[in-house]
Design brief:
This protein is mainly α. The chain has three domains: 119 residues, no CATH class; 77 residues, no CATH class; 102 residues, no CATH class. It is built from 18 helices and six strands. A two-stranded antiparallel sheet has the order 1-2. The radius of gyration is 23 Å and the shape is globular.
Length: 362
C-alpha cells in the first residue's frame, strides 16, 4: 500500500479528527457560488476518508487549489478550440495512413451511437469528456477508425482535476477503488473519480517537502520530481556538468509503468564519472537510481553520498527540493507554459484558500 502522507509543518490549529468537523472546515475553505458546490464537498470529503488523508486545512486547500487551477471548479471543463484540434489530428492521421479524403468525409457522416453524425459531434466538441466518448465510438465503429485514432484512445487525462488515466490504473492496484464502475476511463472523467484520483496523486505519498508548492510541481511533473531535480542539481555541482533538472534520473520507454529504456540518462552518465569518489560501483549506482520514483530513494547509499559530497563542496546544506525545469507541451496551449508556472499559479490559489480559512500558509 502507498506510504502514509507526511504532513507539512503548519501553525497550531484545532484537530479535525472526525467527518463532521472535517465537513465544517471544508465548507469554510470551499469558495461560495461555484458550480456543483455540494458535489465537490461530498466527493472531496469522501476521497479524504477513503484515502486516509487527515482533515487538515493545508490538505483541503491543496486539493482545492489544484481543482481551481485545472478547471475553475467546473465538473466538465471546456477546452478552447477543441473541435479544431480534433479535426487537425484526424487529418494528420489520414495523411499518415494515406486514406482518401472522400473516405473520411463519408465515414464522418455516419450516424453515431448518440444519434448525431460523427461530423456533428466533432464540430460540437467542448470538453475532454465528450472527446473521450467520441474517440471510443470512432475507434469501435468507423471504417479506418483504429488508424485515425492510432488504435488507442489518445486522451490521457481528464476530469476537473486533469487526472492521468495511467495513474488511475496504477492506483487501483495499490489501493482499492471504493466505488463500483463499468469503465475506469469514464471514472477518471467524472467528478467523483477525478477528485478521488487527483487527491491520491497529490497527497497519498510521503514527500520530503516543507512547502506545498513542490507537491504542486510533482502533481504536474510526476511524484518526486522536485526531490529528484534537487538531486540532479547536486550531481551537476559535483561533476561540473550542465544537467537538465527535469526530475527524471533514468530514461523510460514507459514512465508511468517504470519501464526503463535501456539507455543511460545524462544524470546516470554523470554519476558514473563519480564512481570512485562515491565509492560505489556502476552496478550499485544503477541499483539505487532505479528507486528514483519511490520514497525509499532517500535512504539509498547513492542519495546520501551525493548530498553529503555536495554539502561538503558547498560548505552548507544544499537544497533537497528544487523546482523541475520542464516545458509543457500540448495542442491546447497557445503559449509557452512550464511546470514552474503551473506550481506557482496553484500555490497562489493555495495561499488564498488558507487565508480564507484564517490559516497561515507555510
Amino acid at each position: 500500500m502507498p506510504s502514509p502522507v507526511k504532513p507539512t509543518p503548519v501553525p497550531s490549529q484545532p484537530n479535525y479528527s472526525n467527518p463532521q468537523a472535517g465537513r465544517a472546515l471544508l465548507d469554510t475553505l470551499l469558495p461560495r457560488g461555484i458550480s456543483a458546490r455540494k458535489a465537490w464537498a461530498d466527493n472531496i470529503l469522501a476521497s479524504f476518508s477513503q484515502l486516509k488523508i487527515p482533515y487538515a486545512p493545508q490538505y483541503f486547500c491543496a486539493v482545492l487549489a489544484v481543482a481551481e487551477q485545472e478547471s475553475g471548479f467546473n465538473p466538465d471543463p471546456e477546452v478552447p478550440n477543441l473541435s479544431a484540434i480534433v479535426w487537425q489530428q484526424i487529418d494528420e492521421h489520414r495523411k499518415k495512413y494515406m486514406i482518401p479524403q472522400f473516405v473520411i468525409d463519408a465515414a464522418m457522416l455516419k450516424k453515431s451511437p448518440d444519434g448525431r453524425s460523427y461530423k456533428e459531434r466533432v464540430n460540437a466538441l467542448r470538453t475532454k469528456r465528450q472527446m473521450n466518448q467520441l474517440y471510443e465510438d470512432m475507434v469501435r465503429e468507423l471504417p479506418y477508425g483504429q488508424d485515425l485514432m492510432l488504435s488507442k484512445n489518445p486522451i490521457r487525462d481528464g476530469g476537473p482535476m486533469q487526472v492521468s488515466v495511467a495513474f488511475a490504473q496504477t492506483q487501483i492496484k495499490a489501493w482499492p477503488y471504493p466505488y463500483s464502475y463499468t469503465n475506469l476511463r469514464d471514472e477518471v472523467f467524472s467528478l467523483r473519480g477525478s477528485v478521488y484520483f487527483g487527491t491520491a496523486i497529490l497527497l497519498q505519498y510521503a514527500a520530503p517537502y516543507d512547502q506545498m508548492i513542490y507537491r504542486f510541481a510533482d502533481y504536474n511533473a510526476g511524484r518526486y520530481s522536485s526531490r529528484n531535480a534537487a538531486f540532479q542539481a547536486a550531481v551537476a555541482r559535483l561533476t561540473g556538468r550542465k544537467l537538465s533538472l527535469d526530475g527524471d534520473l533514468m530514461l523510460y520507454s514507459n514512465k508511468m509503468n517504470r519501464v526503463f529504456s535501456g539507455q543511460a540518462s545524462e544524470t546516470q552518465q554523470a554519476l558514473m564519472t563519480q564512481s570512485g569518489r562515491l565509492q560505489m560501483s556502476s552496478a550499485d549506482i544503477l541499483r539505487d537510481l532505479k528507486q528514483e520514483k519511490l520514497s525509499s530513494f532517500e535512504q539509498t547509499t547513492l542519495y546520501q553520498r551525493v548530498f553529503a559530497a555536495a554539502d561538503r563542496q558547498a560548505g552548507r546544506r544544499v537544497a533537497r527540493e528544487t523546482m523541475p525545469q520542464i516545458v509543457l507541451i500540448s495542442p491546447k496551449f497557445t503559449h509557452k507554459l512550464t511546470t514552474e508556472w503551473f506550481a506557482t499559479r496553484v500555490n497562489g490559489r493555495y495561499r488564498q484558500c488558507m487565508a480564507r480559512g484564517g490559516f497561515k500558509a507555510e
